[in-house]
Amino acid sequence: MRRPDFANYPYLVAWEVTHACLLACRHCRASAEPQPLPGELSTEEGLRLVEEVATYRPKPLLLLTGGDPLARRDLFTLIARARELGLKVGLTPAATPLLTRETVSRLKEVGVTRLALSLDGATAETHDAFRGEAGSFRRTLAALDWARDVGLPTQVNTTVTRGTWPEIQALPDLLAEKGVVLWSLFFLVPVGRGALLKQLSAKQFEAALNWLYEISIGYPFHVKTTEAHHFRRVVLQRRRQGDRRDRALAAGESLHQEYFQDGMEHSRLGVTDGNGFVFVSATGDVAPSGFLPVAAGNVREKPLLEIYRESTLFRELRDKDLLKGKCGACEYRFVCGGSRARAWAETGDYLASDPRCAYVPPAWLARVGRAS
Q1: Would you say residue 314 has pLDDT above 50?
Q2: Could you tell me which residues come within 8 angstroms of residue 71 by beta carbon, excluding any fewer than 6 positions away?
């Protein structure tokens, strides 16, 4: 497998522009609350961060997330500056009363490249219960329609838990109807409020990932996973079995690579926590991802790129030869590498093997055999 090299620049920069959110989602990694955190980055500090990111080569994708980004008053100023500097901007607003038809139109006008909205159930009853707000499901569907009306591409983010998985399987038809570009499934990592929810077992993970591959064949939108990096292994394995055209996003695309109409690329290399991906919290702490909340520095004290390139945490996460257990012996480690966030959440060691991967690498079997 080709070794990815994200040692110099990240591929995706996610900035949690505020902690504030009117929802109380059961899985929220940030345990967001209605009010901003004390000490969130100011407009001046935020613009300085955006301007730094715009100097990276190649320019990374910039994801503005939260909390609810719409709760930040200077959001449109930040987006406009990012677009002025040539950055592609994704936004993940919450489905609250702040998300209106007028807001969606303005986001399109200011230059947001893609709008990402969350659906965690196929009915209002289940989705609203998961999100902690009546009307969230209805507002999300309306926002998808508003975005399509103004020509703003959309993706849907879905959190996968043991409780939500059965109904998630009813979502593809709805997503196709709404014209989404990408379905991105976030497999639960037990951090924040999500620590109270149950994950799929390793065996259930494997079945779910194979099901998603079938969805990528039969539906018009692309499919990707977050914190289920072994989807990439499943995709590569399934592609070797036949020549069916799929829309699964996994590392190592060649003939299978497709590009989005909105210009948002997908990396041909294996982006993972700290390896191509960097997360900046509302108060400036820099972590490998929002699901691996181990700070390596703060942008108020050092440039983001210096932290990304030089911190021990990020350097270790980019060295796949440091991975332990099955992940360290796996032939897919440079494409997958397992969820470092899940390894940390479940074992306390971000280099440990991903506890939710059922695959047993031949090299690991041979190692175990020699040891016995």
Answers
A1: yes
A2: 18, 20, 21, 22, 36, 98
